[in-house]
Design goal:
- Helix content is 29%, strand content 16%.
- It has 270 residues and is α/β, with parallel strands linked by helices.
- The chain has 2 domains: 37-189, Alpha/beta knot, CATH 3.40.1280; 205-269, tRNA(m1g37)methyltransferase, domain 2 (Trp Operon Repressor, Chain A, Orthogonal Bundle), CATH 1.10.1270.20.
- The strands form 3 sheets. A 5-stranded parallel sheet has the order 2-1-6-5-7, with helices on both faces. Strands 3-4 form a two-stranded antiparallel sheet. It has a two-stranded antiparallel sheet with strand order 8-9.
- Strand 1 (37-43), helix 1 (56-63) and strand 2 (67-73) form a beta-alpha-beta unit.
- The N and C termini lie far apart (64 Å).
- Residues 21-28 have low confidence and may be disordered.
Length: 270
């Protein structure tokens, strides 16, 4: 018999219960939680997850139930004996294209287990660039469903039907969307309450106010003939703040003129 004086488990009252057409493990190691930010990943490589997300701060937060990860193996929705998920491009050409009927089946199944307002995102090199503002916006919602592309990509009809948001990691092509998905999840999860511990640390990072972050230093005070800038050792917080700001502005102006122009335009409008 349970001891009435024993405090309930941290996840008490957070497990979600809903009917499912698919059998679940009797002892599910990662039970579905309610009111927790959730990342769903539809992928041909579910074994790639959690990957780096299972380590360090994001891994600890995942273990503590501050966020939840669900992989949806696309292959189990494939057609025929061999669970085919792709076919040749209409009109000819190299490579293979992910089938819309297979992807739709995976999406329809996954979306029953996440809030309707969670965005459906397709990781694609032709998508809008991933930014800090995007991660900040996603962190305020209930979660997201991510689709990892493979081969020559995904049939355009399923993209249009679900009104997917296409997101790109950068101006280059990867073999699949799994690395991009992990990057977007990591950038978002670290902004969730309680994940970093020190919420102020996100306020001084690169891109937090449209500028690159200032240089950082730590002990020893002198290393290989190079010393920490004296202003940082002065204890004068006002002067330190001014120095850091000027360094951020100089770095941004020299390295990212696009960000610098946007920053100046915002300041003029303000």
């Amino acid at each position: 018999m349970d001891d009435p004086n024993t405090p309930p488990n941290r996840s008490h009252g957070r497990k979600a219960i809903r009917p499912s057409l698919k059998p679940r493990e009797l002892m599910d190691p990662t039970p579905e939680l309610v009111r927790v930010w959730k990342a769903q990943v539809i992928t041909l490589l579910p074994e790639a997850f959690p990957g780096i997300l299972g380590l360090s701060l994001t891994g600890r937060a995942l273990k503590d139930g501050l966020w939840q990860l669900e992989t949806v193996p696309l292959r189990q929705f494939g057609e025929g004996k061999h669970r085919n998920v792709d076919d040749t491009p209409a009109g000819g050409g190299a490579g293979m294209v992910l089938r819309p009927d297979v992807m739709a089946a995976a999406i329809d199944d996954a979306r029953t287990r996440i809030a309707p307002s969670a965005p459906l995102i397709y990781l694609s090199p032709r998508g809008r660039p991933m930014t800090q503002n995007m991660a900040r916006s996603l962190a305020t919602g209930p979660g997201m469903t991510l689709i990892c592309g493979r081969f020559e990509g995904l049939d355009q009809r399923v993209i249009d039907h679900y009104n997917m948001v296409e997101v790109s990691l950068g101006d280059f092509v990867l073999t699949g969307g799994e690395i991009a998905a992990q990057s977007l999840i990591d950038a978002t999860v670290r902004l969730l309450p309680g994940v970093l511990g020190n919420e102020a640390s996100t306020e001084e990072e690169s891109f937090s106010d449209g500028l690159l972050e200032h240089p950082q230093y730590t002990r020893p005070a002198e290393w290989r003939g190079m010393e920490i800038p004296s202003v940082l050792m002065s204890g004068h917080h006002g002067e330190i703040a001014k120095w850091r700001r000027s360094q951020s502005e100089e770095l941004t102006r020299n390295r990212r003129p696009d960000l610098w122009s946007a920053h100046r335009a915002r300041n003029k409008s303000d």
